[in-house]
């Protein structure tokens, strides 16, 4: 069965095309700074938003029209695999991501859930072998089921901790089976509802124990891949322990986990934390911890995680500049953790949404490459910090001075001349680079 009969393989046709099922800016083989665009971007589709979303929200039922429902949950699961891989191939997307509960019904027991996962991933592996599509990362959903109402690794209930461990163990087994390139932890409820009954130190100690068990198991099965933590500040927890990039890095360094973990960062989560996306990417990069990213746009006027397909070239330009400065994002990628609007109900909208997102990231990449080639930011920063290249500034950087010497210097140079940043003019120049 063909689930998307209205279009064939989506190809680059340029920005003059009137074909809605064509790329206007994303040209996979076009070389940017010495390598093909597709290698810079490493696009992935998110199984959950692409396949399992129904258009429902807290205020209304689902609206989407979908054609993969079967007579049994397992038949539906396998139909979804067919539809998903058809879309991947037609969009020329080479990677995908999933939660365990996305791909297989949970059944009536953990044992049945694992059996269903085995059966569906057998089928997924057939599709991967047939198409060449690869698994960017997978993860365990440890936030939806009522058992996780108080968290998973941070739960007050040891039985919940054990159940979560079983899910992650299975997730790592599946990652090895499917050749996964990363494994993600999103602590959807790893946080607290109220400090009145919460021992933060106890819960974070348990989270660290959990992560160390995951590291040990990955080494035991000889599947050592990057572990990624995806920060998010709130929603659903009042305060989540992986609030933002800096908070998460502090946790990793406290528990000596920094050599095993990097960050999977999302634009919408950044804005919920009061940051820009490029801020979070930059913070991760300064710790050598930029692992992967989830791409979406945040409607900040609403104040929650709207997960829109990205369309802001300014944001994607700065995001891709951080990726270029990081010398790429592999073995991570750019996963479209993006969902259609409630009013975009047709099957074809799944293709149109991803085409739009891929085009805007292609434009961001090209803009970022121009900024890098022109040393736009390098020259700005070199001029701003020029006082540290000679004289007393160089002595400071060389650790060749102390408070006494600096005090003597300051007494003789207390009429300090500051220079304007001309920031308004600088910001106006950025627009000249937007492709």
UniProtKB/TrEMBL annotation:
It comes from Fundicoccus culcitae. InterPro entries: Xyl_isomerase-like_sf, Xylose_isom_bac, Xylose_isomerase. It is found in: Cytoplasm. Belongs to the xylose isomerase family. Binds 2 magnesium ions per subunit. The active site is at 99, 102. Keywords: Carbohydrate metabolism, Cytoplasm, Isomerase, Magnesium, Metal-binding, Xylose metabolism. The keyword Metal-binding applies. The keyword Phosphoprotein does not apply. Mg(2+) 2 binds at residues 266, 269, 305, 307. It catalyses: alpha-D-xylose = alpha-D-xylulofuranose. This is Xylose isomerase. Its cofactor is Mg(2+).
């Amino acid at each position: 069965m063909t689930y998307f009969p209205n279009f064939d393989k989506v190809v680059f046709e340029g920005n003059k095309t009137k074909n809605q099922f064509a790329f206007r800016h994303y040209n996979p083989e076009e070389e940017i700074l010495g390598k093909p665009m597709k290698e810079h971007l490493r696009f992935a589709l998110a199984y959950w938003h692409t396949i399992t979303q129904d258009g429902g929200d807290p205020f209304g039922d689902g609206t989407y029209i979908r054609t993969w429902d079967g007579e049994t949950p397992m038949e539906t699961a396998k139909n979804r695999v067919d539809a998903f891989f058809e879309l991947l191939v037609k969009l020329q997307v080479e990677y995908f991501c999933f939660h365990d509960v996305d791909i297989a019904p949970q059944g009536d027991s953990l044992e049945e859930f694992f059996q269903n996962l085995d059966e569906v991933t057998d089928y997924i592996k057939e599709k991967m072998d047939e198409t060449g599509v690869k698994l960017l990362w997978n993860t365990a959903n440890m936030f939806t089921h009522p058992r996780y109402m108080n968290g998973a690794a941070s739960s007050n209930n040891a039985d919940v901790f054990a159940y979560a461990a079983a899910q992650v163990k299975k997730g790592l087994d599946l990652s090895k089976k499917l050749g996964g390139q990363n494994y993600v932890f999103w602590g959807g409820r790893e946080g607290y509802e109220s400090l009145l009954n919460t021992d933060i130190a106890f819960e974070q100690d348990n989270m660290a124990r959990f992560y160390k068990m995951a590291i040990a198991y990955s080494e035991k099965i000889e599947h050592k891949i990057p572990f990624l933590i995806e920060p998010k500040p709130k929603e659903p927890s009042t305060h989540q322990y992986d609030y933002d990039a800096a908070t998460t890095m502090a946790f990793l360094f406290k528990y000596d986990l920094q050599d095993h973990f990097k960050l999977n960062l999302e634009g919408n989560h950044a804005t919920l934390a009061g940051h820009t996306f490029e801020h979070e990417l930059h913070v991760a990069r300064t710790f050598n911890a930029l692992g992967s990213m989830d791409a979406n746009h945040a409607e900040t006027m609403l104040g929650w995680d709207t997960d829109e397909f990205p369309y802001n070239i300014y944001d994607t330009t700065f995001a891709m500049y951080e990726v270029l400065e990081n010398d790429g994002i592999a073995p991570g990628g750019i996963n479209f953790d993006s969902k259609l609007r409630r009013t975009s109900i047709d099957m074809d909208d799944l293709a149109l949404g991803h085409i739009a997102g891929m085009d805007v990231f292609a434009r961001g990449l090209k803009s970022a490459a121009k900024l890098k080639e022109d040393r736009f930011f390098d020259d700005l920063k070199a001029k701003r910090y020029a006082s540290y290249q000679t004289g007393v500034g160089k002595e400071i950087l060389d650790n060749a001075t102390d408070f006494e010497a600096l005090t003597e210097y300051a007494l003789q140079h207390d009429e300090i001349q500051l220079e304007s940043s001309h920031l308004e003019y600088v910001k106006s120049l950025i627009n000249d680079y937007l492709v």
